[in-house]
Design brief:
It is built from twelve helices and 15 strands. By secondary structure, the protein is an alpha/beta fold.
């Protein structure tokens, strides 16, 4: 009888301990949104993999916040680079009780989604949306870890005139928030450097035939053609420029500055013909952390980093660092700490936010392509 009592008491005690341990664990949901279908799915998947890698590492490390062991769960949504799908994805994440969102990839989806996150009081860090309007709507929940188009487009515009010695510069954009925004800033940069824009044309982000606009521009004999848009459109445009005999330098922002561009251009790119800029960049000692990240990413996913994965990785980690500092996973408590982030050492460099949620002292990296590979020209601040 005594033995029986001890056995029951022991079982009850073990059950209590198991329950107590379980009670001290908490699942915290983070959202991620990018286009994992459509023309730039390769970039969206790159972003998502950056988030997955960060979450896996955090869970393996074992993070304790507010006395509880935290298990992070990533809820990944596809917005297909479509603003309507983007707002639907944002609402779904809010309804799923995520405490923060990394995304979206595109400015055109990030801007409308930002209101939904703001209304819900959930922080949103975009790793790649560069349109200035994203952080200029007065929302306290909106952040980005890359420089904006004013810096990016303006720098490229000046570079076209000063370094490439462009005399007659043509501008094409895809009419998206990102493409039109970066093209507008590029045009301002050209004019401020004393250059001349000889033509401005537009297409859309799903177009494949550019014969009409390129024929119109050819008559103006441009020596530089700038495209505001993504690599899925830039590749075919480069092919058709070659077919039409337009021997001009081709420029663009981070949307075209990818490892896929030479494949999408199907062998029509000349060495040093393309000059593009990526919003972000590291130099000196910081280069090693970026290279190490690239090796780790390749080992995990068996593919090279396309573009923004390291910025997504940093965005996840900087958000979790704010939770740790605030000792809370409640957005209302860690949001002010996130906003005050200073001197966070990430793989993409040092992260600090200004009052609007923009990254302070954001870098740009200028690239060209040689033998089908990206070749760094300079890091500019």
């Amino acid at each position: 009888m005594v033995f029986k009592f001890h056995a029951i008491a022991g079982a009850l005690f073990i059950g209590f301990v198991a329950q107590h341990v379980h009670a001290q664990e908490a699942v915290v949901r983070l959202g991620h949104v990018a286009p994992t279908s459509g023309g730039i799915a390769h970039l969206g998947k790159d972003n998502e993999n950056g988030a997955r890698l960060a979450v896996e590492e955090l869970n393996a490390k074992g993070i304790t916040i507010g006395g509880k062991k935290i298990k992070f769960e990533l809820l990944a949504e596809d917005d297909a680079a479509d603003p309507k799908q983007g707002t639907a994805a944002a609402q779904k994440l809010v309804d799923s009780k995520v405490v923060g969102v990394i995304g979206h990839l595109n400015s055109g989806t990030s801007i409308p989604a930002s209101k939904i996150y703001s209304d819900a009081g959930i922080p949103q860090i975009s790793p790649s949306a560069t349109n200035p309007r994203f952080t200029r709507q007065g929302y306290k929940t909106t952040f980005r870890v890359v420089a904006d188009d004013v810096h990016l487009g303006g720098t490229l515009g000046k570079y076209a005139v000063k370094q490439l010695k462009g005399k007659s510069i043509a501008v094409v954009d895809d009419r998206t928030a990102y493409g039109q925004g970066v093209a507008d800033e590029f045009e301002k940069g050209v004019k401020s450097a004393g250059g001349t824009v000889v033509g401005r044309e537009f297409t859309n982000d799903k177009a494949t035939d550019f014969t009409a606009i390129l024929t119109s521009l050819k008559a103006k004999k441009p020596d530089v053609v700038f495209f505001g848009g993504m690599d899925a459109v830039a590749g075919p445009m480069l092919r058709q420029m070659k077919q039409l005999g337009i021997n001009a330098k081709f420029m663009g922002g981070d949307g075209i500055c990818t490892g896929e561009l030479p494949k999408l251009a199907a062998g029509s790119m000349g060495d040093s013909q393309v000059v593009c800029a990526e919003a972000g960049g590291v130099e000196g000692e910081a280069k090693k952390s970026m290279e190490d990240f690239g090796k780790k990413f390749k080992a995990k996913f068996n593919t090279d980093v396309q573009l923004y994965a390291p910025y997504v990785y940093d965005a996840v980690n900087v958000m979790v660092a704010a939770m740790q500092k605030a000792n809370s996973t409640e957005p209302a408590k860690f949001l002010p700490v996130l906003a005050a982030t200073e001197g966070y050492k990430g793989v993409t460099g040092t992260i600090a936010f200004d009052q609007k949620g923009d990254i302070k002292n954001g870098a740009l990296t200028l690239y060209t392509y040689k033998a089908g590979k990206r070749d760094q020209l300079a890091v500019v601040r």
